[in-house]
Amino acid sequence: MKKTIAIAALITASFHVVNVNAADHTFSIGYAQTDISRLNDDLKGLALKYRYEPGRLGLLVGLTGTALNNSTSITVVNNEIVLNGVERTYGSFHIGPTYRFNDMVSGYATLGYATYKVEGKSGKSVTGSIEDSSFAFGTGLEVNLTQHISLNGGVEYSEHLFDSTALTYTVGLGYRF
Fold this sequence. Notes:
The chain is mostly beta strands. It has one domain (23-176): Porin (Beta Barrel).
Protein backbone atom coordinates (compact mmCIF):
# COMPACT_ATOMS: atom_id res chain seq x y z
CA MET A 1 0.00 0.00 0.00
CA LYS A 2 2.84 2.39 0.88
CA LYS A 3 4.48 1.66 -2.50
CA THR A 4 1.24 2.48 -4.31
CA ILE A 5 0.92 5.80 -2.48
CA ALA A 6 4.58 6.62 -3.18
CA ILE A 7 4.20 5.81 -6.89
CA ALA A 8 0.98 7.87 -7.11
CA ALA A 9 2.71 10.80 -5.39
CA LEU A 10 5.68 10.53 -7.77
CA ILE A 11 3.41 10.49 -10.84
CA THR A 12 1.42 13.46 -9.52
CA ALA A 13 4.64 15.40 -8.85
CA SER A 14 5.94 14.66 -12.35
CA PHE A 15 2.73 16.08 -13.91
CA HIS A 16 3.16 19.19 -11.77
CA VAL A 17 6.75 19.64 -13.02
CA VAL A 18 5.56 19.31 -16.63
CA ASN A 19 2.96 22.06 -16.06
CA VAL A 20 5.57 24.37 -14.54
CA ASN A 21 7.67 24.06 -17.71
CA ALA A 22 4.72 24.45 -20.10
CA ALA A 23 5.39 26.34 -23.35
CA ASP A 24 9.18 26.35 -22.94
CA HIS A 25 9.62 24.09 -25.97
CA THR A 26 8.67 24.68 -29.60
CA PHE A 27 9.02 22.19 -32.42
CA SER A 28 8.41 23.51 -35.94
CA ILE A 29 8.40 22.12 -39.43
CA GLY A 30 8.32 24.18 -42.57
CA TYR A 31 9.19 24.90 -46.17
CA ALA A 32 12.75 25.72 -47.20
CA GLN A 33 14.00 27.16 -50.49
CA THR A 34 17.69 27.52 -51.32
CA ASP A 35 18.83 30.06 -53.88
CA ILE A 36 22.30 29.14 -55.16
CA SER A 37 24.01 31.94 -57.07
CA ARG A 38 24.90 30.94 -60.65
CA LEU A 39 21.98 28.48 -60.71
CA ASN A 40 18.70 29.35 -62.42
CA ASP A 41 16.40 27.07 -60.39
CA ASP A 42 15.93 26.99 -56.62
CA LEU A 43 16.34 23.92 -54.44
CA LYS A 44 13.22 23.13 -52.41
CA GLY A 45 12.84 21.14 -49.23
CA LEU A 46 12.15 21.00 -45.53
CA ALA A 47 13.25 22.88 -42.41
CA LEU A 48 13.00 21.51 -38.86
CA LYS A 49 13.57 23.65 -35.77
CA TYR A 50 13.53 23.02 -32.05
CA ARG A 51 13.52 25.95 -29.62
CA TYR A 52 13.99 25.77 -25.86
CA GLU A 53 13.15 29.06 -24.17
CA PRO A 54 12.91 28.91 -20.36
CA GLY A 55 13.08 32.71 -20.05
CA ARG A 56 14.11 35.70 -22.14
CA LEU A 57 17.13 33.78 -23.44
CA GLY A 58 16.90 30.38 -25.06
CA LEU A 59 18.44 28.00 -27.56
CA LEU A 60 17.47 27.04 -31.11
CA VAL A 61 18.62 24.02 -33.11
CA GLY A 62 17.78 23.76 -36.80
CA LEU A 63 18.12 21.27 -39.65
CA THR A 64 17.48 22.16 -43.28
CA GLY A 65 17.49 19.97 -46.37
CA THR A 66 16.74 21.01 -49.96
CA ALA A 67 17.22 19.33 -53.33
CA LEU A 68 16.76 19.80 -57.07
CA ASN A 69 16.77 17.10 -59.78
CA ASN A 70 17.24 18.27 -63.36
CA SER A 71 16.91 15.92 -66.32
CA THR A 72 19.22 17.35 -68.96
CA SER A 73 18.85 14.73 -71.70
CA ILE A 74 17.16 11.48 -72.65
CA THR A 75 19.04 8.68 -74.41
CA VAL A 76 18.07 5.20 -75.55
CA VAL A 77 20.44 2.40 -74.51
CA ASN A 78 19.57 -1.24 -75.38
CA ASN A 79 15.97 -0.25 -76.14
CA GLU A 80 15.60 1.41 -72.72
CA ILE A 81 15.08 5.11 -72.08
CA VAL A 82 17.80 6.55 -69.83
CA LEU A 83 17.45 9.96 -68.16
CA ASN A 84 20.68 11.88 -67.78
CA GLY A 85 20.71 14.68 -65.30
CA VAL A 86 22.11 16.53 -62.36
CA GLU A 87 21.01 16.26 -58.74
CA ARG A 88 21.84 19.09 -56.35
CA THR A 89 21.40 18.80 -52.58
CA TYR A 90 21.93 21.26 -49.75
CA GLY A 91 21.83 20.50 -46.04
CA SER A 92 22.64 22.45 -42.91
CA PHE A 93 22.76 22.13 -39.15
CA HIS A 94 22.50 25.30 -37.05
CA ILE A 95 22.51 26.13 -33.36
CA GLY A 96 22.30 29.47 -31.60
CA PRO A 97 20.73 31.72 -29.00
CA THR A 98 17.19 33.07 -28.98
CA TYR A 99 15.96 36.26 -27.39
CA ARG A 100 12.34 36.94 -26.43
CA PHE A 101 11.40 40.56 -27.19
CA ASN A 102 7.89 40.26 -25.74
CA ASP A 103 5.17 37.64 -25.21
CA MET A 104 4.64 37.27 -28.96
CA VAL A 105 7.98 37.81 -30.73
CA SER A 106 11.29 36.03 -30.37
CA GLY A 107 14.42 36.39 -32.52
CA TYR A 108 17.36 34.09 -33.10
CA ALA A 109 20.85 34.00 -34.59
CA THR A 110 22.59 30.76 -35.50
CA LEU A 111 25.97 29.41 -36.54
CA GLY A 112 26.45 26.07 -38.18
CA TYR A 113 27.66 23.79 -40.89
CA ALA A 114 26.31 23.52 -44.44
CA THR A 115 27.05 21.12 -47.25
CA TYR A 116 26.29 21.42 -50.98
CA LYS A 117 26.59 18.44 -53.32
CA VAL A 118 26.24 18.15 -57.10
CA GLU A 119 25.94 14.70 -58.71
CA GLY A 120 25.85 13.85 -62.40
CA LYS A 121 23.63 10.84 -63.13
CA SER A 122 22.98 8.57 -66.06
CA GLY A 123 19.96 6.44 -65.31
CA LYS A 124 20.45 5.20 -61.76
CA SER A 125 24.26 5.41 -61.93
CA VAL A 126 26.27 8.33 -60.57
CA THR A 127 28.73 9.51 -63.23
CA GLY A 128 30.49 12.11 -61.10
CA SER A 129 30.03 14.23 -58.02
CA ILE A 130 31.51 17.15 -56.17
CA GLU A 131 30.76 18.18 -52.60
CA ASP A 132 31.65 21.25 -50.57
CA SER A 133 31.10 22.01 -46.90
CA SER A 134 31.35 25.38 -45.23
CA PHE A 135 30.58 27.54 -42.24
CA ALA A 136 27.04 28.94 -42.25
CA PHE A 137 25.05 31.46 -40.26
CA GLY A 138 21.42 32.43 -40.03
CA THR A 139 18.86 34.66 -38.39
CA GLY A 140 15.11 34.78 -38.03
CA LEU A 141 11.98 35.61 -36.07
CA GLU A 142 9.32 33.51 -34.40
CA VAL A 143 5.84 34.89 -33.68
CA ASN A 144 3.53 33.16 -31.22
CA LEU A 145 0.09 33.26 -32.82
CA THR A 146 -1.57 31.54 -29.84
CA GLN A 147 -0.32 29.96 -26.63
CA HIS A 148 0.54 26.75 -28.51
CA ILE A 149 0.98 27.77 -32.18
CA SER A 150 3.90 29.76 -33.60
CA LEU A 151 4.98 30.96 -37.04
CA ASN A 152 8.66 31.40 -37.90
CA GLY A 153 10.70 32.71 -40.77
CA GLY A 154 14.41 32.86 -41.29
CA VAL A 155 17.34 33.00 -43.66
CA GLU A 156 20.62 31.03 -43.77
CA TYR A 157 23.78 32.03 -45.63
CA SER A 158 26.80 29.98 -46.70
CA GLU A 159 29.48 30.07 -49.43
CA HIS A 160 30.23 27.06 -51.61
CA LEU A 161 31.75 25.80 -54.86
CA PHE A 162 33.28 28.26 -57.30
CA ASP A 163 32.47 31.29 -55.11
CA SER A 164 28.75 30.57 -55.24
CA THR A 165 26.59 31.59 -52.29
CA ALA A 166 23.61 29.77 -50.85
CA LEU A 167 20.72 31.75 -49.37
CA THR A 168 18.08 29.52 -47.81
CA TYR A 169 14.74 31.01 -46.84
CA THR A 170 12.52 29.13 -44.39
CA VAL A 171 8.92 29.53 -43.24
CA GLY A 172 7.51 27.18 -40.65
CA LEU A 173 4.64 26.44 -38.33
CA GLY A 174 5.42 25.36 -34.79
CA TYR A 175 3.78 23.78 -31.79
CA ARG A 176 4.67 25.07 -28.31
CA PHE A 177 4.48 22.71 -25.37
